[in-house]
Amino acid sequence: MKKILDFWQNDPSLSPNISTIHVTNANPGHFVPLPEKLDKALVDALLQENIKALYRHQWEAIQNITQSKHTIITTGTASGKSLCYLLPILDKCLKDNTATSLLLFPTKALTQDQLNTFLRLSPSTFHSSIAIYDGDTPSSQRAKIRQTARILLSNPDMLHTAILPHHPNWERFFRGLTFVVLDEVHLYRGVFGSHIANLIRRLKRVGQFYSASPIFILTSATVANAKEHAENLIEEPFQQISDSQSPRGTKYFLLYNPPIVHEELGVRRSALSEAVRMSGDLIVKGIQTLLFTHTRKNVEIGMKLLQSQNPDKAHQIFAYRSGYLPTERRKTEEALKTGKAKAVVATNALELGIDIGGMEAVIISGYPGSIAATHQQAGRAGRQKQDSLAVLVASSNPLDQYILKHPEYLFENPPEMALINPNNPLILYQHIRCAVFELPFRQNDTFGKLPWEDIHPYLQVLTLNREVFATADRFIWRANQYPSQNVSLRSTSGDSFLLQVEEDDRLITIGELDQASVDWMAHPNAIYLHQGQTFIVQELDFEKKLVRLSSFNGDYYTQPLMDQTIRTISEEKNQSVPGGAIHFGEIEVTRQLKGFRKISWLTKEILATEELELPPRTMRTVGYWIELDAVSVQKLSEYNLWSGKPNNYGPNWEKQRKLARQRDQYTCQLCGIPEKGTPHHVHHKIPFRQFPSYEQANRLENLITLCPVCHHKAESVVRIRTGLSGLRFLLSQIAPLFVLCDPGDLGSHSDPQSPISQGNPIVMLYDNSPAGIGLSETLFEKHEPILNSALEVVQNCPCGEGCPSCVGVGGENGSAGKVEAIAILKILNGQPLRL
């Protein structure tokens, strides 16, 4: 690994861009003998796999589990977490022919991976007792699995819809239930995690009915509150195993800032192109590499670029993302394990812990959005004790740039917390419906840790709705409905669309897209990329859920133009507060494709913009919004702390704009693309708002002609957050702590001149799920403590102009609006403004 580091550090085009090299020293590991009481057949299987000893943390976890202690293992990537539960499960099953175990995984890839490990470590005579039970399991095999499975590998959705509602068919399995494993529980947070916690309540209730009290074994990536999260999820006391004693090589973690390509504007080369370049260097040096990028489209673009730059290795460069057929994903996973794949470009679908063999290097194109995800992706390298390398290639996103200037944010801060609220009334109501279908409730029953007094009102509502029949001492399901099929554990919904290509007079399915993505990825005439091949969308059939593709050899790709609007349906509550008013009501969020751009592969020039309207996608939900009144805006303006009004560039703007374009010969001064019909943009090098007068701001020497794409790049560098957008960022980070949800469970919106409030400024937070689950209403009720906390956080934050811990960050040369946000918060908290 030192050779590639030396190569980069001696390359004058790369070396100046490496801002940080963070080194984690090698650790020889701490080994202990295999437990003496392990079944002999299991010991023999371990020896065949060359496992002659355990890491100390594995031994500690197994001791806890065999002593019937609920255990969560958080020892990081490549530390052998799965062996912590595999060994006690197999040992118990081999010694007790009635014992059963249920293992729940968040993805099918993880399920398949663990099945293979179970099969390797168990005697062949036991293989028929190990089974996967998920949506892909053929119906012809399901009855046999119910009758014979001792170790069942499944997922939360199948437990919710196919196992618990039909538990009488699983009586044998539930009577022997000894262990329950939940893998990757850091994913079970927010609304999704709150559903999972109630699912576990139902599982324990059914288990109790069959006299089973299983031991729960959880694994997780590092989160700030892993033990607390486990106890909230399972409602049992937990032991945590967090000190990894597995051997590891030296880990080099580089932070890399792409070079500036226009000094005056501060525009940098794209993160993806630099990530591809560095990946290419690694491939040439024979270092197996995994390149992470944010979007499915960037996976395809990255793969295509990497193959074109390394044509002799093109057949050894793979892509991995959602939307591929299972056979394609398994092929890539196998190529990784065997070493056939020299590089894989992937979304975070490869972030989870499936075995990918001896990966040596990881390149991360753009900050993944959280400290935990960054370390999880970086940890995919070095999984076989060798030295490893991770590189975070920063994008021009302000958060990326902040991290490069403050590497301690990434390397010294704890990862994010996982929060859930199982007692959210709407979520709880849905699962009590499911639970009463599964088993009647008797008087004084509990549901998890909830006492009868908390459950009884829900059962009374179900009785009034004629779904439940009440007798003297019990509540029995009476409706014809099957409740769990109408309760989604996840926020996503809708059927998948099949992607089909005509080959030899027949349609071949090459992949699938979820309903939420089909508009922007597969609209008519969209260029769709799949495993390095390029297709054009010929037809999008909403009725048949089909996308018809054909091969495409053009020199451009497409970029969708989406429009989002928010309007109020009804206002249910409002209240006067200092500085304005707060509101709660039903809103409608509408997203619609309005057209698309054709962008040159070679120059990134916008070749054309075409109009295209697809049916709007609407989501009715509920929102809470803060309205600033005119008096507050006037007060902020008097202190020069209001930047919510659109720029008025002054009476000489049109003249200066024409002169600038004429001087620059109607050509983009960054990429060299000439105007073609539509005038280029004219950009202020130093932001307009930073001048005392329009005359100074509009001087020709402060103006430059840019095409729309380059203008967007330049604007991101000098991005200036208004106080309103800073407040929106701050509230979106703080609000989840008050309603115990994940930040993604809430949408946010701000508008300095909102039609929702007759032109007054607003900041809005809304439930990011259809109909809502009560988050926004709780925020409305907790408005005062939320605003108090927000002001306390931003005032106590030691940063100068803003950071990810308070109001967010501006561009490299911009402002984050911290002072303005503090002023707005003071007004909303009824405090006086002082300069």
From TrEMBL:
Please provide the record's keywords in A-Z order. ATP-binding, Nucleotide-binding
**Coiled coil, from the record:** none
Q: Which InterPro entries match?
A: DEAD/DEAH_box_helicase_dom (IPR011545), Helicase_ATP-bd (IPR014001), Helicase_C-like (IPR001650), HNH (IPR002711), HNH_nuc (IPR003615), HRQ1_WHD (IPR055227), MZB (IPR018973), P-loop_NTPase (IPR027417)
Instruction: Please give the biological process terms from Gene Ontology that the record holds.
Output: interstrand cross-link repair; nucleotide-excision repair
What molecular function terms (GO) are annotated for this protein? 3'-5' DNA helicase activity; ATP binding; endonuclease activity; nucleic acid binding; zinc ion binding
Q: Residue limits of the Helicase ATP-binding domain?
A: 62-241
Q: Does the keyword Nucleotide-binding apply?
A: yes
Q: PANTHER family from the entry?
A: ATP-DEPENDENT HELICASE HRQ1 (PTHR47957)
What residue stretches are annotated with the Helicase C-terminal domain?
279-426
Q: What is this protein identified as?
A: DEAD/DEAH box helicase
Origin species, per record, is: Bellilinea caldifistulae
